[in-house]
Amino acid sequence: MSPTPPHPDRRAFLLLGAGAAAALVTGCGLNNPFDTSTTPAAEAVRNLAPDVAAAVTAVGRLRTNQANLDAARAAHPALTKRLSGLTDLYRAHLEALVAAVPDGVDTTPATAPRPVPAGRAAALALVGKDAAAVQVGLVDLAVQARSGPFARLLGSMSAGLAQQVVLLQRTPVAR
Question: Which helix H or strand E contains 19, and what residues bound it?
């Protein structure tokens, strides 16, 4: 008579089931097909591959700047034409990066757009300062990128923003 192969006992099934349930209940919503909630970008980047985290970071920064830019344009319609290049650039950068953001990661701005200064010159200066900060941030992300093509993409985005910052500073704003 040949020995019967060992079968998992009831305790093993119970432990396996409890472990799976615990993983579903306590697991991160990111990449969990049973969870429809979203994970804020700042939290999600800790669990992502470095280049994906960089894309998520860049998208979050661009969306925040885009919201502040839209608020400035709404407060000062006379600046709309002057800000059109930067508006188009933010849109193009987001189109290039948003596909790299995993489902379930929320890259919407964490806060409402900040108050816009009453003067057009001050509003324009603040938009330019925001763009310059994202430009430097894109340089940092490009340096840290592991993929050469992705680093070049971030670098070219940074160069585009640098150009827009110079253009915003070049012509004085009529009061």
Answer: helix 10-26
Strand partners, 39: 105
- In terms of Cα–Cα distance, which of 54, 113, 61 is closest to 90? 61
pLDDT at 21: 40
Burial of residue 117 (CB within 10 Å: 0-12, 13-18, 19+) is: middle
5, 6, 83 from 1: Cα distances, Å: 12, 15, 86
Angle at 87 between CA 81 and CA 93, to 5 degrees: 155
Tell me if residue 3 falls in helix, strand or coil: coil
To 5 degrees, how large is the angle CA 46–CA 49–CA 55?
A: 85
In the predicted model, is pLDDT for residue 50 greater than 90? Answer: no
Q: Percent of the chain beyond pLDDT 90?
A: 54
pLDDT tens by residue, 136-148: 999 999 999 999 9
Task: Note the pLDDT of residue 46.
Answer: 60
Amino acid at 167: L
